[in-house]
UniProtKB/TrEMBL annotation:
Residues 27-69 form the Peptidase S8/S53 domain. GO terms for biological process: proteolysis. Its main location: secreted. It is found in: Secreted. Belongs to the peptidase S8 family. InterPro entries: Peptidase_S8/S53_dom, Peptidase_S8/S53_dom_sf, Peptidase_S8_Ser-AS, SBT, Subtilisin-like_FN3. The keyword Cytoplasm does not apply. It comes from Populus trichocarpa (Western balsam poplar). Pfam families: fn3_6, Peptidase_S8. Keywords: Hydrolase, Protease, Serine protease, Signal. This is Peptidase S8/S53 domain-containing protein.
Length: 211
């Protein structure tokens, strides 16, 4: 996810005289660029979404932001999904998401670390509050990181003529409750994708489907 980072006006340290012109007082605001500015931009958007949907946790807010990013591929360059990611953050889209969120649980995050080569003991050192009884899956593999319930899907080490099954659980957050969602598939060259079912029907809000 890209967020505006260039020439942002931000509060500045009142005692920082390094950039202060001779004979003047330190400014209260300064123009800054870089990741240090894109991070608070996204954080503010998270706070705005939370103020509209008080029951949402961070893992519900995140896909609302990711799935409503603005993507443009009309330029002379031909970017890939690894270039543009989820696009540029929208300040209005997350307040009116398409109606589906991919909630990532604590177990998903812990399993990510497991598949990355960390054992249960190491994870308990990294995480303060590991759920009781948690243990890394027995079938550990970096290839299985794609099973984490995340809005995007990346499949590693897919060999020619090899098939891979990926599951996702989606929660309906449409304001009017009942909703039907249909899909379109844009598969990369040389890849065949099938999704089952081809449409999702929800009777009320906060229902979930696993596909």
């Amino acid at each position: 996810m890209a967020a505006p980072e260039a020439n942002r006006s931000a509060a500045w340290q009142a005692n920082d005289k390094e950039l202060t012109l001779k004979g003047t007082e330190p400014p209260l605001f300064n123009v800054i660029s870089g990741t240090s500015m894109s991070c608070p931009h996204v954080s503010a958007m998270v706070a705005v979404v939370k103020s509209h949907y008080l029951s949402w946790n961070p893992s519900a807010i995140k896909p609302a932001i990711l799935t409503t990013g603005e993507i443009s591929t009309s330029g002379p360059l031909q970017p890939t999904v690894y270039d543009y990611g989820a696009g540029e953050i929208s300040t209005s889209g997350p307040l009116q998401p398409a109606g589906l969120v991919y909630e990532t649980t604590t177990i998903d995050c812990l399993n990510f670390l497991c598949h990355h080569g960390n054992n249960t003991s190491t994870i308990k050192v990294i995480f303060k509050d590991v759920p009781a009884g948690f243990a890394c899956p027995k079938d550990l593999s970096v290839d299985l990181m794609s099973t984490i319930n995340y809005p995007s899907i990346a499949v590693l080490n897919l060999a020619r003529n090899q098939a891979r099954t990926i599951n996702r659980t989606l929660t309906n957050v449409a304001g009017d409750g009942a909703a039907t969602y249909s899909l379109t598939i844009e598969a990369p060259n040389g890849i065949k994708i099938a999704v089952v079912p081809t449409s999702l029907q929800f009777r009320r809000s906060n229902n979930f489907w696993s596909v």
